[in-house]
Amino acid sequence: MTSLPPQPISPLDGRYRKAVEGLGDSLSEAGLNKARVHVEVEWLAYLTEHSLLGGSPMGDDQLASLREWAANFGQAEIDQLAETERVTQHDVKAVEYLVRDRLEAQGLGQFAELTHVCCTSEDINNLSYALTVQQAIADVWRPKFVDVIEELERQAAQYRELAMMSRTHGQPATPTTLGKELAVFVHRLKRQLDQIDAIEYLGKFSGATGTFAAHLAADPNADWPTISREFVEGLGLDWNPLTTQIESHDWQAELYTRIAHANRILHNLATDIWSYISIGYFRQIPVAGATGSSTMPHKVNPIRFENAEANLELSNAILDSLAATLVTSRWQRDLTDSSAQRNIGVGLGHSVLALDNIKRGLGQIDAAPEVLAADLDTNWEVLGEAIQTVIRAEVTAGRSTISDPYAALKELTRGRRIGQTELVEFVSALEIGDEAKQRLLELTPAGYVGIAAELIDFLD
């Protein structure tokens, strides 16, 4: 039997590549190496611009050319790094040699010894991961997350007045509106987005054990903490002054925990929409040419929401593992984080894929007002709450002597389905004030939604 040509193992790099491909620009080995080259070049630029460690400023054109090369990191650099790493057996050292080679090629060999000076590999790595994760969130994950929120918000406005039977414990309960229920998810997701946006992307740049020891040995008169802070913040990151050899990764754990929480809310959304489809509250819009079942031609399956469920669970399995693993490092350094962090893109990728499916799924459903109305009309017993509450108010106001209103309604409605006629008869015989009685007689399940529609305005 012949072997297949080389194939991707992960569906993110195979079947679903198109949905997640933007992540490869940052959360891939090439994306990480591009960021490493950027950090190395910027550190070299900082040293020369500030005439540190014997360096003198590069010419503007020379520096611009070096930065342009770093920004255009591509296949040639990827191939060269792979070849070099086969010899060095060290990925960051290979990056250092790549930058050195570029300096020589540009006639800037006099700056070669400033490449990677005073740096441990983790100085380069932690900044590179911070930059690539920051880019992935800003350019890929966040826009897709916002797309889902905006579509939910649009539908919440569209269905704000559409009355719907609630179900607590799976049983008919006080009605609401479909729009308000969607708005609950919008509100929850927006809160998570605010917390994700507030995450600090921390970076350290302080040497082998976070003490600036080599820096001070090379130049005891320089203000190295200030230099470190300026450099890190100049990259668009927040400075962490107290670390071991590694940046402690707490910000990463916080970020992945927040995204995992958002994933869980999305999972709740997917299961709720799936359930509403199941009872007919939403119709699915058939996609031309699509097949719902290989044997049952009538079926339109809610596959977008089912796919989202699975991918959200996979995403959280990885993100939860990262959040738990990355906060621990034995003494001043171990390499557990090195292997773990290479899976950041996988964790975020499954979340991005789920977001893509949810957005597409939301675009393939329509509410079924007649189904919602029929469900309400067959569950008049849900007005029992309103009736017993009004009676209590009437007793308190001295307009009724009914004892234990709750028990009276429980006897009438618990475990029973009653219709409008029975409820009208019951209310008509109540010893309550005329105004209260008229309000109850005019009440319908579809009208018993409180201020559900107005609550949506709290999203603004």
Automatic annotation (TrEMBL):
InterPro entries the UniProt entry points to: Fumarase/histidase_N, Fumarate_lyase_CS, Fumarate_lyase_fam, Fumarate_lyase_N, L-Aspartase-like, Pur_lyase, PurB_bact, PurB_C
Record-level Gene Ontology MF annotations: N6-(1,2-dicarboxyethyl)AMP AMP-lyase (fumarate-forming) activity
The protein's name: Adenylosuccinate lyase
Annotated ranges, domain Adenylosuccinate lyase PurB C-terminal: 329-449
Enzyme class: lyase
Keyword S-adenosyl-L-methionine: no
Summary of the function given for this chain in its UniProt record: Catalyzes two reactions in de novo purine nucleotide biosynthesis. Catalyzes the breakdown of 5-aminoimidazole- (N-succinylocarboxamide) ribotide (SAICAR or 2-[5-amino-1-(5-phospho-beta-D-ribosyl)imidazole-4-carboxamido]succinate) to 5-aminoimidazole-4-carboxamide ribotide (AICAR or 5-amino-1-(5-phospho-beta-D-ribosyl)imidazole-4-carboxamide) and fumarate, and of adenylosuccinate (ADS or N(6)-(1,2-dicarboxyethyl)-AMP) to adenosine monophosphate (AMP) and fumarate.
Pathway: Purine metabolism; AMP biosynthesis via de novo pathway; AMP from IMP: step 2/2; Purine metabolism; IMP biosynthesis via de novo pathway; 5-amino-1-(5-phospho-D-ribosyl)imidazole-4-carboxamide from 5-amino-1-(5-phospho-D-ribosyl)imidazole-4-carboxylate: step 2/2
GO biological process: 'de novo' AMP biosynthetic process; 'de novo' IMP biosynthetic process
PROSITE patterns per record: FUMARATE_LYASES
Naturally occurring in which organism (per UniProt): Leucobacter denitrificans
Pfam families found in the cross-reference section: ASL_C, Lyase_1
